[in-house]
Amino acid sequence: MSRAVGRFPHLRQDVAASLVVFLVALPLCVGIAVASGVPAELGLVTGIVGGIVTGLMPGSSLQVSGPAAGLAVLVFEAVDAYGLPALGVIVLAAGLLQLVMGALRLGRWFRAISVSVIEGMLAGIGLVIIAGQLYAAAGLRAPASGLDKVLGLPGAAVDALADTEALASLAVGAGTVVVMVLWRWAPGPARAVPGALAAVLLATVVALALGLPVATVEVRGLLGSLQPPGADAFGALADIGLIGTVVAFTLIASAESLFSAAAVDRLHHGPRTRYDEELMAQGTGNAVCGALGALPMTAVIVRSSANVQAGARTKASRVLHGVWLLLFAALLPSVLAFIPLPALAGVLVHAGWKLIPFRRTVALWRAHRGEALILVVTAVSIVVVNMFEGVLIGLALSVVKTAWEASHARLEVTDKGAGPIRVHLSGNATFLRLPRILDALEALPEDRPVELDLSEVHHLDHACRTALENWAERRGAVGTAPVRVTGDGRAALPESEEPAPAPPA
Fold first, then answer.
1. Which value, in Å, is the radius of gyration of the alpha carbons in the chain?
2. Could you tell me which residue ranges the SLC26A/SulP transporter domain spans (predicted)?
3. Residue-number span of the structural domain to which 459 is assigned
4. Do 127 and 261 share a domain, yes or no?
5. CA atoms lying within 13 Å on the CB side of residue 438
6. CATH, residue 450
7. What is the pTM of this model?
8. How are strands ordered across the β-sheet holding 484-486?
9. DSSP label at 504?
10. Whether residue 34 is found in the same domain as residue 155
11. pLDDT digits (tens, 9 = 90+) for 274-286
């Protein structure tokens, strides 16, 4: 034992942390799988791969990977559209694409994605998860689209209130959420058990003791749930829609993992994340999950922060959490059959709520309204359209905002009543600011000379230069003195103006 402690000086802390992460991950792996429309065991498979395979690889030392609530909506849509056999192909292709991106050292570029877009994406996913799981909590079938889920909630509430079994199911789900919210105020020893696990255990005991008519998890067995993609499943890659789904899986899983890595790095003082290597680690894990027909994985901030807060020092903790998941899936799979589905729905409603950055949105609105607008538009677009197109809308809006800010130009007019009118243009003069610039210039008196100072213009694009030349040419055509330009290396506009002839000798 002393020799093991000598080789692994932090073994005790890592083992203790791994048990905490295992207890946090267990209900989430099962709940996310059920919410994704796949067998519960597939969530455990992804957690196992995330712990043992991705956990052993370099990149980040303390963040934990596994199935994420942020991808549950996309997985459900993919399974609904292409079938469960195609899921393995999609996840495998996404993993291989992540490996290529990591090899090309593109991991660091994900940090350039607007944080508002990422937070808006998570908020939109959270809203869809909450809406969908409210149906599941009542034992009702949820509509397919996010917008229909939201709009159908009033009718679902009426149906649930008229059905005794639906009310019992809803009570179990609501009780699960209440326990999770109040668990932080539990006595000290009790808080050692993660709130999600405690809530599911209590819901299971209550449902069994009272004989409540609620649905429970369907158990197929670990090996029986694995569905490696066959040769015929790869033919689906010819579908353009499926290719778009692969791209969506890749970009969203990569962005969520690398943003999680940045957040986890702020929680500890150990080695920093190497983003390209972490992207390859995520790609390897997803490739293995795809080959097994399991759910896609990302690095998950909830499990990662629990790992750090539990005192983990090395990657051994996340590897061991995968070992505990494997032992549970191999030895105790029948335990899953006692878990009420509305309890898992309650866990996911709570997880979806935590994805919505309420405080962050309010702070953004006060300080940077443009960023807050991007966040809200991205979230609403995901609910109204779908996740992939909603993220694209958010990215496009972010690019437009950046272009608008980058084109900031200031025009100052100084008119002393006599002599030339001095116009000072500064900043980045691009076509986006051209209408305001031309409005100001064309409003100048036509019977006075103008001096245009461009010395503080950082960038003058072709559209602006051409417009200024045309304005100067029109102004000179009415008999006014040519516009004198300073700071641009030329005496006057337009460029076509001929130099004055030299005086006779």
1. 30
2. 11-378
3. 409-486
4. yes
5. 17
6. 3.30.750.24
7. 0.74
8. 409-414, 421-429, 450-460, 484-486
9. P
10. yes
11. 888 999 999 999 9
